[in-house]
Specification:
This protein is α/β, with parallel strands linked by helices and about 475 residues long. It is about 40% helix and about 15% strand. The chain starts with about 45 loop residues before the first helix and ends with a strand.
């Protein structure tokens, strides 16, 4: 965590722990769940066991948040939502939580029971950051420890540590940075260099808050904002604040809209009017941008190397009653075209989505950027080759790292005399003027769009640039 930036701590009041909006959905994760054990008959226990299982998947096996909760565990939707909230909140605040546990356990965690950390993380999360009575948070986490043979012998320790936390949280918080404890140090230092200290502090603050649900609608955003008790954002996306399970919302089954962060909806719009044009969407899955292009009348070829993600893309298109040619394969070797336009949302570190995917703070390493930047360079060069003369390329990443955004574009333009930047100009696309850089690219930050409460504010961190191939 960004220890060098630690400041005086303002201890939170445990009497005002924020309530959390339920999460939605999950995919199968590897490993053997324990939530089906007989002990889980205690109300609320199965949710806590599943949350701890999910933490183990992320922390010990590198699973992504959306893959960490075992979908095969039979659980009431409310319990599954609770498990998701515990898991996601633990990951968002893991720096703070680990610092507290270290203070509470001077001898460290027992090496014979690594799962014990996940039990304590889940318990501390509920005590400090969720609307769960302290006695329930402590008692159920003790039961979680007892339900697993590897941690059963430490149930008394769990009880003692968590009870002490309920009594001494304010004192224990002293010395833990209120701004940067939950930001990996290497990320924080990079963002300070790129965006400055105050902007980095604002980004880190947004990462602590559960994100709202943004959707892209086929038509009439104002109508859907009213039907879903949301609001229309400046760029035309609809933000839903109290969503609940996504699939149960009006219009989902009918295919009237799809989930897409407001920032992720911008790159496709930079292509302008695509009606009747041949457009390639490279690295297309799960298909939000493909859907945008198809809904706008483009003849879309969607390319992705992941068969499972392409299955999801096809399912989304079927639900939305939209069509595209779907190609399974490596976008760097795709031989189609030439195309009027190419949209490349390249694989990246995804540090711009850390609020939505807090597992990134745990699983990403600085060395990943080198590998990813090399892949992006290959992809963007090949994407340019797929263009017709006069064609348009939009390159984007959901990363806050300049190596994956601005520097990729500058490197390509320096190497290719057949390409020029086509700057985005103010007033060209509704709502994005605050995000246009001096070079004419688009750069959004999680701290943009402060709209009152943090829960209704912000958007993913994205970079997008528009290039043209000389005619």
């Amino acid at each position: 965590m960004v220890r060098a930036l630690s400041g005086a701590m303002k201890p939170p009041s445990r009497a005002h722990k924020p309530a959390r909006r339920p999460g939605s959905g999950s995919a199968p994760a590897p490993g053997k769940p324990t939530a089906g054990k007989p002990a889980a008959a205690t109300p609320g226990l199965a949710a806590r066991i599943l949350a701890v299982d999910g933490l183990e998947q992320v922390l010990r096996h590198g699973a992504a948040l959306e893959d960490a909760l075992d979908a095969d565990v039979a659980l009431d939707p409310r319990d599954r939502a609770l498990a998701y909230r515990i898991l996601a909140t633990s990951l968002r605040r893991i720096g703070t939580l680990r610092s507290l546990i270290a203070k509470l356990m001077e001898r460290g965690l027992p090496k014979s029971a690594p799962r014990l950390e996940s039990v304590l993380l889940a318990g501390a999360t509920q005590i400090l950051f969720m609307d769960v009575p302290n006695h329930a948070a402590v008692g159920l986490c003790v039961d979680v420890a007892r339900a697993d043979r590897n941690t059963a012998g430490f149930a008394g320790l769990v009880n003692a540590v968590l009870r002490r936390l309920t009594r001494e949280a304010d004192a224990l918080m002293v010395g833990i940075s209120p701004d940067f404890a939950d930001t990996p140090e290497w990320m924080g230092q990079r963002w300070i260099k790129a965006y400055g200290l105050e902007t980095t502090r604002a980004i880190a603050a947004m990462h602590k808050v559960e994100p709202p649900l943004d959707i892209t609608v086929k038509a009439d955003p104002a109508l859907w904002a009213e039907r879903l008790s949301g609001e229309v954002l400046p760029t035309g996306s609809v933000r839903v604040l109290q969503a609940g399970p996504v699939r149960a919302l009006p219009g989902f089954a009918e295919g009237d809209w799809w989930v897409q962060d407001a920032a992720a909806a911008l790159p496709a719009r930079l292509l302008g009017n695509v009606n009747g044009l041949k457009v390639a969407d490279l690295c297309a899955a799960p298909g939000g941008k493909t859907a945008q292009l198809a809904a706008a009348g483009a003849i879309v070829t969607a390319v992705d190397r992941s068969s499972s993600r392409l299955t999801r893309l096809k399912e989304n298109l079927e639900r939305l009653k939209l069509s595209a040619q779907v190609v399974a394969g490596d976008a760097a070797d795709f031989a189609g075209g030439p195309f009027d336009a190419v949209l490349l949302d390249a694989p990246c570190s995804a540090t711009g989505t850390l609020r939505r995917h807090p597992d990134i703070a745990v699983n990403k390493r600085p060395g990943d950027l080198v590998t990813l930047a090399a892949l992006q360079a290959r992809l963007i060069a090949h994407a340019a080759d797929l263009l017709k003369p006069g064609g348009t390329l939009v390159y984007s990443t959901c990363s806050l790292e300049p190596e994956e955004g601005e520097q990729q574009v500058e490197r390509l333009l320096a190497a290719r005399s057949d390409l020029i930047r086509a700057p985005i100009v103010p007033g060209e696309v509704e709502g994005i003027d605050p995000f246009i850089t001096p070079q004419g690219d688009v750069r959004t930050l999680p701290s943009h769009w402060m709209r009152g409460e943090a829960e209704r504010s912000g958007l993913d961190g994205f970079f997008a640039a528009r290039l043209k191939r000389r005619a």
